[in-house]
């Protein structure tokens, strides 16, 4: 029976061959576990889409109602708490894993020729995923959502020349209003997911075109010198994507999914109080992945300097990361053979962790 | 029968120009209404209204002791009329003049807390500090507190507030 169906398809479109080609992709064999991160991201994104679609059965993008609709979903819909919990913890995990994936690629020099475009496509995915997180945080309609919308649109308003326009377009007017929520909603559930859905295949297509580079340890037996590009063309050993690599991908996906599920069930998604523009004693908090940025905002006092914290430092930092393959054009890939890049990378990660840790602390105590 | 692109290079050029033109026309035709939808807020006039704050004599103001008074602006926003609840911070100066501040931090808009023990407004977000007359005394805020546009009624006691800040050319905050 199964054989017949297969033959039916093969006679017409040669399906078996397509599948075999996809599954047979050769993957470097020594670092298999490190290469599961990309597939893990694709898996996590799928989970976000699936849970998100069903959150929409209840969610209403309207300021006074959004938070209560979310509350209803969590407390009165059967297993709604799990659905919402997976969506929240899945988002957190995705942002965390994307950073690890980037670090893996960075330290193994896998963004170098011929893989510059893989990195660029990856950076598009990274930016979109972070904005998805931020907009999701705004959609809950609680107090933090309200102040995050205000603060972030104000940050955007410091962009030179067009800042005021950006804020007004994002808010749908001068004030945060019903239109603001509607815009954020459209961006979070349609615009950005579609960008991700387009860019994951682009990313993967590019990777398959050049083949996986993997890490330097895949090339230990190579006789060609480190600074010759040819060295990085042929790994010492490879395995087929299916089932060898896919098997590892599945195990990692399962473990991470289990963690997300447990967090969803036992910690859940905090909903927080209804937004109150009149609040007198509320201290807004950003999500954890924004705290490093939040910390930078605490410095640079006064009119002349505000542009450093709101625009220059974030955008220059992002620009450097985005264009990394064109800035670092050396040929060595092993982290030990390019100590400057490795040390800079480690320092950057440490700085990020440090800023995140102190970013959560208000600089002046709210009540004394 | 028309020649194929392989038979005639000029035919090939012609086809490519037509393909390019069609894409451009469709692209522009689609971009117009999309840009309209996105940029629409820039062409809307802001709905500015007066709303009553109340009588100053009812507030029992003491010099340099801010009073937070909520006001509710009824304004058109998009397709709906909404109530915007906002805080007016009324401060009586030593010479008796009144100031009507917004409780929004001028840095990025977080809600200020009045800390009586320190006689300061503190911002919970990035540590901005203002004194009772609205001047920046610490942290990142780039300018003094925003002041609401206001007017007194005939009785010289009732105050009306507009949903607009003074000296705010870029319409920040609110
Ligand atoms: C939704 C986000 C992403 C998905 C689904 C994704 C997916 C993948 C997959 C499946 C692979 C191949 C296996 C592996 O090494 O993991 C990969 C490799 C790669 N990724 Fe990503 N990725 C994402 C984000 C990023 C980001 C943010 C960057 C960097 C800015 C990036 C840069 C790269 C590069 C350069 C490679 C090639 C590595 C090599 O050849 O060894 N990716 N990605
Ligand atoms: S918003 Fe008040 S200090 Fe930044």
TrEMBL record, chain A:
<feature type="transmembrane region" description="Helical">
    <location>
        <begin position="119"/>
        <end position="140"/>
    </location>
</feature>
<dbReference type="InterPro" id="IPR036150">
    <property type="entry name" value="Cyt_b/b6_C_sf"/>
</dbReference>
<keyword id="KW-0472">Membrane</keyword>
<dbReference type="InterPro" id="IPR005797">
    <property type="entry name" value="Cyt_b/b6_N"/>
</dbReference>
<keyword id="KW-0408">Iron</keyword>
<dbReference type="Pfam" id="PF13631">
    <property type="entry name" value="Cytochrom_B_N_2"/>
</dbReference>
<dbReference type="GO" id="GO:0022904">
    <property type="term" value="P:respiratory electron transport chain"/>
</dbReference>
<keyword id="KW-0479">Metal-binding</keyword>
<keyword id="KW-0812">Transmembrane</keyword>
<feature type="transmembrane region" description="Helical">
    <location>
        <begin position="250"/>
        <end position="269"/>
    </location>
</feature>
<feature type="transmembrane region" description="Helical">
    <location>
        <begin position="33"/>
        <end position="59"/>
    </location>
</feature>
<keyword id="KW-0249">Electron transport</keyword>
<feature type="transmembrane region" description="Helical">
    <location>
        <begin position="339"/>
        <end position="358"/>
    </location>
</feature>
<keyword id="KW-1133">Transmembrane helix</keyword>
<dbReference type="GO" id="GO:0009055">
    <property type="term" value="F:electron transfer activity"/>
</dbReference>
<keyword id="KW-0349">Heme</keyword>
<feature type="domain" description="Cytochrome b/b6 C-terminal region profile">
    <location>
        <begin position="231"/>
        <end position="368"/>
    </location>
</feature>
<feature type="transmembrane region" description="Helical">
    <location>
        <begin position="305"/>
        <end position="327"/>
    </location>
</feature>
<dbReference type="GO" id="GO:0046872">
    <property type="term" value="F:metal ion binding"/>
</dbReference>
<dbReference type="InterPro" id="IPR027387">
    <property type="entry name" value="Cytb/b6-like_sf"/>
</dbReference>
<keyword id="KW-0813">Transport</keyword>
<dbReference type="InterPro" id="IPR005798">
    <property type="entry name" value="Cyt_b/b6_C"/>
</dbReference>
<feature type="domain" description="Cytochrome b/b6 N-terminal region profile">
    <location>
        <begin position="5"/>
        <end position="216"/>
    </location>
</feature>
<dbReference type="GO" id="GO:0016491">
    <property type="term" value="F:oxidoreductase activity"/>
</dbReference>
<dbReference type="Pfam" id="PF00032">
    <property type="entry name" value="Cytochrom_B_C"/>
</dbReference>
<feature type="transmembrane region" description="Helical">
    <location>
        <begin position="79"/>
        <end position="107"/>
    </location>
</feature>
<dbReference type="GO" id="GO:0016020">
    <property type="term" value="C:membrane"/>
</dbReference>
<dbReference type="InterPro" id="IPR016174">
    <property type="entry name" value="Di-haem_cyt_TM"/>
</dbReference>
<protein>
    <submittedName>
        <fullName>Cytochrome bc complex cytochrome b subunit</fullName>
    </submittedName>
</protein>
<feature type="transmembrane region" description="Helical">
    <location>
        <begin position="184"/>
        <end position="207"/>
    </location>
</feature>
């Amino acid at each position: 029976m199964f054989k017949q169906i297969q033959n039916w398809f093969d006679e017409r479109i040669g399906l078996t061959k397509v599948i075999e080609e996809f599954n047979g992709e050769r993957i470097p064999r020594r670092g298999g576990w490190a290469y599961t991160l990309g597939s893990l991201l694709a898996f996590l994104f799928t989970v976000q889409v699936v849970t998100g679609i069903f959150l929409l059965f209840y969610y209403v993008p309207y300021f006074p109602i959004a938070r209560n609709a979310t509350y209803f979903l969590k407390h009165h819909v059967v297993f709604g708490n799990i659905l919402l919990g997976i969506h929240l913890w899945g988002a957190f995990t995705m942002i965390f894993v994307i950073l690890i994936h980037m670090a893996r690629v960075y330290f193994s020099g896998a963004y170098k020729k011929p893989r510059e475009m893989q990195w660029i496509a990856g950076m598009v995915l990274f930016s979109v995923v972070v904005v998805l997180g931020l907009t999701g945080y705004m959609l809950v309609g609680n107090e933090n959502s309200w102040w995050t919308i205000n603060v972030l649109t104000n940050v955007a308003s410091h962009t030179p020349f067009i800042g005021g326009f950006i804020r007004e377009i994002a808010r749908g007017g001068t004030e945060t209003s019903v239109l603001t929520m509607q815009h954020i909603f459209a961006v979070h559930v349609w615009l950005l997911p579609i960008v991700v859905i387009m860019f994951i295949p682009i990313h993967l297509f590019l990777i398959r075109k050049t083949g996986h580079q993997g890490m330097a340890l895949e090339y230990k037996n190579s006789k060609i010198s480190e600074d010759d590009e040819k060295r990085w063309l042929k790994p010492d050993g490879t395995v087929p994507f299916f089932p060898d690599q896919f098997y590892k991908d599945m195990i990692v996906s399962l473990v991470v999914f289990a963690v997300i599920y447990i967090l969803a069930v036992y910690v859940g998604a905090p909903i927080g109080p209804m937004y109150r523009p009149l609040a007198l004693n509320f201290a807004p908090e950003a999500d954890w992945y924004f705290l490093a940025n939040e910390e930078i905002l605490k410095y640079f006092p006064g009119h002349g300097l505000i542009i450093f914290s709101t625009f220059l430092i974030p955008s220059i930092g992002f620009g450097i990361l985005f264009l990394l393959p064109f800035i670092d054009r050396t040929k060595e890939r092993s982290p030990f053979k390019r100590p400057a890049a490795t040390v800079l990378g480690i320092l950057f990660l440490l700085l990020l962790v440090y800023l995140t840790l102190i970013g959560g602390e208000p600089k002046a105590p709210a009540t004394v | 029968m028309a020649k194929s692109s392989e038979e005639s290079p000029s035919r090939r050029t012609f086809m490519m120009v037509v393909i390019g033109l069609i894409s451009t026309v469709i692209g522009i035709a689609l971009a117009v209404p999309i840009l309209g939808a996105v940029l629409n807020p820039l062409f809307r006039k802001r709905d500015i209204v007066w709303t009553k704050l109340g009588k100053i004599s009812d507030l029992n103001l003491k010099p340099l002791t801010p009073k937070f008074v909520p006001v509710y602006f009824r304004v058109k926003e998009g397709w709906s009329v909404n109530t915007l609840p906002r805080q007016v911070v009324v401060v009586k100066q030593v010479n008796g003049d009144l100031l009507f501040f917004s409780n929004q931090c001028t840095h990025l808009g977080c809600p200020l807390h009045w800390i009586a023990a320190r006689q300061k407004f503190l911002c919970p977000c990035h540590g901005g500090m203002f004194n009772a007359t609205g001047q920046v005394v610490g942290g990142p805020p780039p300018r003094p507190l925003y002041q609401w546009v206001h007017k007194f009624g005939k009785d010289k006691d009732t105050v009306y507030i507009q949903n607009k800040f003074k000296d705010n050319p870029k319409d920040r905050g609110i």
